[in-house]
Amino acid sequence: MADIKKTLKNWIAFKEPKKMEKFILKENKGESSDNQNNTNEAEKAGESANEKERENSQGKRDSSVPKKRGIKNQFAPVTFVGGSGAGNDKKSESTKDEDEDGKGTVNVNEMSKVSDKLSDNVAFLKKKYTIPENADIVLREFDIVAKDKSIPACMIFIDGMCDRNIIDLAILQPLMLLSNIEIKGREDEIGLFVRNHLIPHNQLKIVDELSKVIDDVNFGGCGIFIDGITTAFTADVKGWQNRGVSRPNTEMVIRGPQEGFNELLRTNTGLIRKILKDEDLIAENISIGRRSKTPCSLMYIKDIANDSLVNEVRRRLKGIKIDYIFDSGELEQLLEDNSYMAVPQIIATERPDRVAAMLTEGKVAVVVHGSPFVLVMPTTNIDLFHSSEDSYIRFPYANLIRIIRIIAVAMSLLLPGLYVAITNYHQEMIPTDLLFAIEASREKVPFPSIVEILIMEFAFELIREAGVRIPGPIGPTLGIIGGLILGQAAVAANIVSPILIIIVAVTGIGSFAIPNFGLGYAYRILRFGYIFLGAAAGFLGITFGLFVQGVWFTSAKSFGVPFMAPLGPVTKDGFADQILRYPIWKQDTRPDYLNVKDVRKQPKISRQWSEDDNKN
Amino acid sequence: MEKIRFGKIEAVFMLINIMSIQIFLGFPRRMAEVGGTAGWMVPLYTLLLSLILFFIISKLYTNFEGKDIIDIAQIAGGTFGRVLVGLIFLANYFFILPIILRMFSENVKIFALVQSPISFVLMFFIIGMIIASYLGIEAIVRIASIIVPIVAVGFIVVILGNVKYFDVSKLLPILGNGPYEIFIGAIPRISIFSGFSTLYFIAPFIGKNKEFKTIGNLSLILSGVIMTIGALVYLLVVPYPTSTENLLAYLHLARYVNYGRFFQRIESVFVLTWCLAGLAYLSVGLFFIVYIIKKTFSLEYYRPLIIPTAVILFTICLIPQSLMASINLEGDIYRKYSWLIAFILPIAVLLLAKFVKRKKEGEKRYEKV
């Protein structure tokens, strides 16, 4: 009853209208003094966020400890570690001293810092990783001989994620064998001695928090614990199987690099750095997902990108509270301004050269581990129509391709709707001969034209969707055969008219010409809207649809940038590379709507040789 | 309301759209009625007059940078002044907007959707207006700056398509109905620029005085030129007195475009582009009605007012008995007297406000002493 009242109240009572303006991209004046403050705040924010994450993970640990045990497990033996030895039947393969250390063992549930007793650390690790049920965790105990002392130590790593050769050569071998060699060193403290002389590995960290060890081990590191010191070491020994750098699947170009991103974070950031050898290119580490702890990298060029934009992206990334995140597609949906908007507001691309080009314009990129698609933001409507090949081919060819693309997009959106509108309401527009042809073909069809179109569009979408899922060589063949045979059969059966087949085919081909995947989907949905509007009110309906779509897009923003810039708000110097492209030596400035720090890309005369020619 | 800002080009395009939209409706026929074969001189002449009036207004506006006419009325006459001026402008917009809406719908009904009831056609316009007003003036102005160039291209295509029917002898006698009719009798016809009054309401969104002047002058000049060309082309193609009979002149001109068997009877495409311009105009109109209500009565929100206002407009729109009745209302009443509201009222309000301000400053100085 209370729910019904609440619902009614929500419907009837006045509600304060929602704020439309969400984030404003700051302008450049007076930003230099704010630079330092912003970066300091960002660092502090980063540190406090890290602390919060640590608390979160501890909280997760605490909350997960008193687990409900199902009825089957109620009668199973409980393995207690390092305390009451009741029911301790299973023996782990490596440790023998845990039973000996019955007295004075600390409760492993409460441990957060590395203990100076190796047995406590081992007990904690066994509890934490559920060893030995968790079969791919390896806990190796060994002895180090250092300065005539034999010190017990242990190492933990996850088999399958680590490179065993590196572990053997760079960690176990020096610690177990080479520690006998006379080393000239003065460190009295064992920890420092081991770090400075005994582990010749290039990425070694000293940590004292157990959660940090866990995090590193979970992502392909190994943790080293030594008896007698309250710090542990973690080494980055990642070595898992992965797909190499191959061609991009979705964005094929003829002229241009043929490398695409793969699923590894560092490989992807490496590919971008390989193109932009700029020390001002910053790659900040951010971890998203409470359980998956997916590492992401926020990349931008420090002295071009607008600071408020970078801060806003960082703020949104850090403000995501979610358990697991698997792909950059999910991250895109969590970051975008308006989820109900038909078109994407963030570009996802598989090509490093495209990401590099957009970074040099002043945009921000987010690389997600495990996904070959990198997100770049902000974007405008016109950016969604660009492909990287436009910059690599010559000026006349690029402009021709752009014009064809615009026509293709317009056709994919409007052609079916226009056909319905013209045949139902505006027959006088059709030239007489064509009118005869259309009428002759439509004479035998029992359905009105809108039903025809809906049948054919639906069939086309079915074929498209089915073609994606069929494996191997049958997939594309099915598309062609399905299209041809179904279409031909439908015409022969007088279900649809032949003209309609042409229209649907041209529409489909036009939609494949759209470079951006998300935009193609968006126009597939909007096309149905235009079909209904065209059937309802002819050209007036189409006009209404265009107007509403136009107003919807112009009111949208992507990270503070108006979506239809530079057409919507007409911005200065905005047209160098938007609808049509100027020759490359004329593209002097970066787009103004991003409020970048350094507007000039190249001097007025970027081909110095032409000046010298004139002088000579 | 959130901080709204827009640039010069957008404001100019919006104002051009508001003032020039009449070309596609009843304006050419009215000019033929007023001036005969010299009807094209009327917009040119009234442009000069309105430029002079705007010069006076912009000079007076220098003291009130960034304020709209309602704020200035508040300074001039307190709450009573504000409410009075607000109500006068509201009456102004509530009169013209339903008429234009009706004319556009009849336009579409006559040429495209012949069998549909008028309310069905009106629904499309009204729903478009509601959605656009809900999304705010920034979105409307931006879409206007995309639509106006497209409509301009359509306009030029119609003109170029009619070039083969141009006949300069249709412009003779050169002074048409006589110099008295043109130069004295057409003075009230400054009202063709009455859409200019929206400039006083976008002053806070523009900010600086210099830009205010530039926008005003540029939009007046461009609209005046466009309307002169519009009237001229119509008079070159259709001879007097037939030119006084075509209610929707440019649609007839679009029908005359005929190049071979393929490129003929394309007026439907032009109906499409002109409806886009019409939707932009109507959305601006609805937004400003709601905005004026908000400012006049010092309300906090304007969005809840959109749907009720749209319903009222819809109702008023259906009051005239036919297209001819609404054209009559527009031509004989609105376009004869609205210049008083668009130009004379702001001058009066500005003068009064200046006087009141000077008096108050004088008193302050007196108090200090």
Please describe what this structure looks like.
The complex is a heterodimer of chains A (616) and B (369). Among the domains of chain A are: 94-236, no CATH class; 265-379, no CATH class; 393-562, no CATH class. Chain A has helices at residues 2-12, 32-64, 71-74, 118-129, 164-176, 190-198, 210-218, 265-275, 307-318, 328-335, 352-361, 389-392, 395-425, 432-442, 449-469, 474-492, 498-512, 517-555, 608-615, and strands at 137-146, 149-158, 204-207, 221-226, 232-236, 281-288, 294-301, 347-349, 364-368, 374-377, 557-558, 561-562. The longest helix of chain A is centred in the last third of the chain and has 39 residues, at 517-555. Chain A is elongated and about 105 Å long. The model of chain A is unreliable at 30-67 and 76-104 (pLDDT under 50). Chain A starts with a helix and ends with a helix. By secondary structure, chain A is of the alpha+beta class. Chain A has a 5-stranded antiparallel β-sheet with strand order 1-2-4-5-3, sandwiched between helices. Chain A has a 5-stranded antiparallel β-sheet with strand order 6-7-9-10-8, sandwiched between helices. In chain A, strands 11-12 form a two-stranded antiparallel sheet. In chain A, helix 8 crosses helix 11 and helix 15 packs across helix 17. Chain B is mostly helical and 369 residues long. Chain B has a single domain, classed as Amino acid/polyamine transporter I. Chain B is 73% helix and 1% strand. Chain B has helices at 8-20, 27-35, 41-61, 69-111, 118-135, 137-161, 179-184, 198-206, 209-237, 249-256, 267-296, 306-317, 323-368; strands at residues 258-259, 263-264. In chain B, strands 1-2 form a two-stranded antiparallel sheet. In chain B, helix 6 runs antiparallel to helix 11. Classes of the chains: A alpha+beta (616), B mainly alpha (369). The interface between A and B is large, with 36 and 45 residues.
